[in-house]
Design brief:
Layout: H1 3-13, E1 32-45, E2 48-62, E3 68-75, E4 78-88, H2 90-98, H3 100-106, H4 112-124, E5 130-137, E6 152-158, E7 164-170, E8 176-184, E9 190-197, E10 202-211, E11 216-222, E12 228-236, E13 242-250, E14 256-264, E15 270-277, E16 285-293, E17 299-310, E18 313-316, E19 323-331
Length: 332
């Protein structure tokens, strides 16, 4: 790999977390080698709630750049999904594209239409800086690693600053599935993410903005017809920690359906949440959060307990169990 290719690859992998939601690991400090998140099924013992067994499990393994190398999901003890990610740099990707024609002569695995679709992509972008990510089904039933075929191939085109500008996703037969376009401001901050189908029709669009006077950032999600579906406003303190998160969900007519306000402690962890119906002034529900932390300051257990408000007094709701989430972290 040349020095230029190495720099481009590192810059792309270091792009903002929002720029590659499917490929990026959670942004933790220090960087995690692996993260397992378990939604527990609480058990009551007297007046206390114990964590119980895990109802669902999601685990990811990450490289030193914060990119996923593996991912698995379980429903209880049943494996639902297991995938592995392989990253190829610019030179290896261009070599792959160059070999498509010769491979076409040796195999009929892919249809002519699918092959021409990928050939067309390689031909149009041969002078650009791009790389690919191969996604594999890593479940035990898929056989040896050396014989498996990718279930998805993602080709990423970088801009002049080394950030991901486009992602072209192909299915197992190398047919184009979707194209994701990224837009950045002059400060290299992501401002828009647009996902279109193979014919250019919008599937989803997300916008990101920063309001300096209020020290807040806004993330909005729009659907196929460009209707607003959700807006999340995150307010920060002077030291950069999260102070409050306001999330609003909208119906098909862009009218607010629910709104939640989450207040965070000095370290940015959720402390209290208020849930409202539409534009009601008083909350429908309230929740308290509690956390257990590891020696790095990251939480390993989170409890979300519904609160009853009566005559101005807030009391834990004893009628139902708390929501308990546990995390296992392994650091670099």
């Amino acid at each position: 790999m040349t020095k230029t290719s190495t720099l481009i690859l590192i810059a792309a992998l270091a792009a903002p977390a929002a720029a590659e939601p499917a490929l990026k690991c959670p942004d933790l400090k220090p960087r995690a080698r692996s993260l397992k998140v378990m939604r527990m099924q609480p058990l009551r013992r007297g007046k206390n709630w114990l964590a119980g067994s895990a109802g669902s499990i999601n685990s990811v393994s990450c490289d030193m750049y914060g990119m996923k190398t593996g991912e698995a999901e379980y429903d209880g003890k049943n494996l639902v999904l297991k995938q592995a990610y392989e990253y190829r740099d610019t030179e290896a990707t261009k070599a792959f594209c160059a070999g498509l024609k010769s491979e076409e002569k040796l195999t009929t695995t892919f249809s002519e239409e699918a092959r021409s679709s990928l050939d067309d992509f390689c031909r149009r972008n041969k002078k650009k800086d791009f790389s690919m990510v191969l996604v594999y089904d890593d479940s035990p039933s898929r056989g040896k690693e050396t014989t498996r075929k990718p279930i998805r191939s993602i080709f990423r085109i970088f801009d002049k600053r080394g950030f991901v500008a486009e992602e072209h996703s192909f299915d197992p037969f190398m047919t184009l599935e979707s194209v994701t376009l990224y837009t950045y401001d002059k400060g290299n901050n992501l401002t828009q993410l647009a996902v279109n189908d193979m014919d250019g029709r919008q599937l989803r669009r997300e916008t990101y903005s920063w309001n300096k006077p209020t020290a807040s950032r806004t993330h909005s999600v729009f659907g196929e017809t460009n209707q607003l579906q959700r807006k999340t406003v995150t307010e920060l303190r002077e030291d950069g920690t999260v102070r409050r998160i306001v999330r609003t969900d909208y119906d098909s007519g862009e009218q607010p359906v629910t709104r939640s306000e989450t207040y965070c402690d000095a370290k940015g962890a959720p402390e209290k949440e208020l849930v409202y119906d539409a534009d009601e002034a008083d909350p429908k529900y309230e929740y308290d959060y509690s956390h257990k932390l590891d020696d790095k300051g990251n939480w390993t257990e989170e409890r979300r307990t519904r609160v009853t408000v009566f005559n101005g007094k807030r009391m834990p709701d004893s009628s139902g169990p708390p929501e308990i989430t546990e995390r296992e972290l392994l650091y670099y």
